[in-house]
Amino acid sequence: MSLRTPGSDSLNAVRRSRELAALANGEAVDVLVVGGGITGTWTALDAASRGLSVALVERGDLAQGTSRWSSKLAHGGLRYLAHGEVGLAWESARERAVLMDVSAPHMIRALPMLIPLGAQVSRAGGLKLEAGLRFGDRLRAAAGTSRRRLPPARRISAEEALRLAPALDPSGLRGALLHWDGQLDDDARLVVAVARTAAAHGARILTYTRVTALGAEGATVHDERGDATFELRARHVVNATGVWAGELSGGVALRPSKGSHLLVRSDALRQPRAAVNAPLPGSGGSRFVFAVPWPHGLVMIGITDESFEGPIPDEPTVTPAEERFLLEGASGVLRQPLCAADVVGRYAGLRPLLASGDEATADLSRRHAVVEHDGILTLVGGKLTTARRMAQDVVDRLAARPGVRARDCATTRIALSGADRPADADRDPIAPGVPVSHAQLRFAVEHELALTPEDLLDRRTRLGLVPERRAAARSAAQEAIAAAG
After folding, report:
1. Closest C-alpha among 42, 8, 149, 9 to residue 390
2. Cα gap 329→332, rounded to integer Å
3. Is 264 in the same domain as 328?
């Protein structure tokens, strides 16, 4: 049974200014959360729903960092089984169940996924993959996700595989393995929904508020829009800034991993109805490039998993070598190879993986950790699917401190903002071929804390992923911001 949210979930410039002023005037909070991505917003919601006063500060917009550059899957952790991490796969299956059935059923759909059984997969390899999928089914059932929500895995014929994915190469195709996982409509919108739900529980959500110094009793912060600096006082501090965590607190050792993605038009793959996992040569069936159908005529090709060295950029870019790798990897199972001319968009993100010796990042665990250093709790590692559990763990740690009075975690029973309303249909489109309406832009400004045209184009909608759509919608985004004053 889900819990009702107790207050207003509307976030806008007026509310931000009012709450920022109260903190600047010396009002202290129980918990300061630094970072407006998926782990930071879940932490704010967890703490606020336990009865603690919370302020979340983010130097840019919500979901401005890694959280909007994911593969947009709420997945059950099948890849972790190949590395023997059954516990991590079980955690993923449990958290996927919470997301799909309680937190965000309005934002997640069941996605059919194919592993073609062709020349890239030996018969023995196919049996091994099938065994892994069936074990994943047992985890799904144990986690409480019904067969109606995510059907069980099965082997299908070549003919059925080609109906689901017409671009597959039929030569040598013995059939395919079909399984199901969760697909997010939009990772950035999930972050916004969590932030709005945290606000309904009393959390102050303060974007464009940069931390210039962080300590165990609060932070020095700069209001980027009002150009003012003040001391924000807090009894406890959580650093949830992902790959940037080491810039604010010590005791953190990370090995960032870069995940790059391409977007191609769905007609380049003959309008697939299922995702295709293309096994990479020489991986033994443990690594894939996948082609995932998206709404509005797109297919996402992903994903790389390469160690990233050097300063952390705000927006990583896809290199030509990564693009070639993804196109060639996906083309290995296709009748007609993909080429650069098929690509209409690109994006990349950096995963904040915990350092572990000299292992390649593809082999590093996706487990998370809570690290305490000089009184600051830093939350690192993990992934989007398990971010709710990550937040629970860090707030449990905080709640165990002397003098803290907090209720038990309730986020497994909280439906996020919007879960009780059907998704808006695409009415009143901004321009032909642009799947966003003027009403959606106005709603984002009035209720979702969109403060700039970029907030609208790149995070409240994902038009910015396709440059031609971004250009067509830019004037409408500017008008929506201007209309709000």
Report:
1. 42
2. 6
3. yes
